Amino acid sequence: MTYQILKTQISEEGIAWLTINRPQALNALNTAFFDEMNAVLDELYPNPSIKVLVITGEGKAFVAGADIAEMVNKDQSEGQAFSEYGQQTFDRIERAPFPVIAAINGFALGGGCELAMSCDFRIASSKAKFGQPEVNLGLIPGYAGTQRLSRLIGMADALYLLTTAEIIDAQEALRLKLVQKVVEPENLESEVRKIALSIASKGPNAVRKVKSVTRKGFQISFAQGSLLEAEQFGTLFGPGSEGEEGMKAFLEKRTPNWK
Ligand code: CO8
């Protein structure tokens, strides 16, 4: 598939870099974006050489929200369908077998903040701005922002942002733990690349498993999650396993040779 909105690049280390490239509309999310995002995920999901996916935006926005021009004429069932399509797409980002990093270069508002929250963690430019301003438009978040924001930053801070529509800067987002790191704009790409390369250098099965066990464990009970952890821990042992190579490399004071 050729993409109109997404620019994709895959490095030899297995870093997939995805840039949302509709800067004239501040990368607002329309149906074409979701179609393309699903096509990209269809390509990346079954590819075992993908170590990390980075999602970023072109220009002064990461994403300034769902496309208001596309939404304005929708009726109730179309509104619900647009919400469900976006939710399903963001769930696929969250459930991706590899870690997904949001590199937030600018505005991450409404659906843009929701997209960032569906990633595993967020690195922000000091110029980035965050918010859920839907109530300004007589709307509420529709891409599971009501659910992810409260889980990430706690109920009271989430409801403060959701009801006031306040736009916060990167430092405040860091304080709220909405983002994990803030860097100067000119360093965003190199810093995110450094983090992605660091992840790519680890045991590839271990990285995928630690993500899936942590994510799945959040949806089930502590006891079930612990059981899942023990099962997956076990799969990393044994002759020829990744754990065996990693532990032997440590004891032999050499770099592991992952398969
Ligand atoms: N949708 C469509 N177009 C947009 C959007 C958007 N969300 N944001 C910006 N644009 C367009 C502007 O209309 C403008 O287009 P044009 O040049 O043709 O007039 C262009 O991008 C540049 O924008 P501005 O001129 O406004 O740029 P400024 O630097 O002056 O302002 C802001 C930047 C503050 C980010 C401003 O653009 C803004 O307030 N944008 C809207 C932010 C917003 O309200 N986002 C939330 C949208 S609602 C949402 O995301 C709901 C998610 C769940 C939906 C579920 C589906 C049903």
How would you describe the overall organization of this protein?
With 259 residues, the chain is of the alpha/beta class. The chain folds into 2 domains: 195 residues, 2-enoyl-CoA Hydratase, Chain A, domain 1 (Alpha-Beta Complex); 48 residues. 47% of the residues lie in helices and 16% in strands. The strands form 2 sheets. A 6-stranded mixed β-sheet has the order 1-2-3-5-7-10, with helices on both faces. It has a 4-stranded mixed β-sheet with strand order 4-6-8-9. Helix 1 packs parallel to helix 3. The longest helix has 19 residues. The protein is globular and about 60 Å long. The two termini are 30 Å apart. The chain binds octanoyl-coenzyme A. The site of octanoyl-coenzyme A has 25 residues, from helix 2, helix 3 and strand 6.
CATH class of the largest domain: Alpha Beta
Order of helices and strands: EEHEEHHEEHEEHHEHEHHHH
Find the CATH topology of the largest domain: 2-enoyl-CoA Hydratase, Chain A, domain 1
With helices defined by DSSP (H or I, 4 residues minimum), what is the helix count?
11
SSE class: alpha/beta
What count of domains describes the coordinates?
A: 2
- What's the architecture of the largest domain in CATH terms? Alpha-Beta Complex
Instruction: Specify the biggest β-sheet.
Output: 6 strands, mixed
Q: Say which CATH homologous superfamily of the largest domain is assigned.
A: 2-enoyl-CoA Hydratase, Chain A, domain 1
pLDDT averaged residue by residue: 97
* Distance between the first and last residues' Cα: 30 Å
Radius of gyration: 19 Å
Hetero groups bound? Answer: octanoyl-coenzyme A
Strand content: 15-25%
How many strand segments? 10
Shape: globular
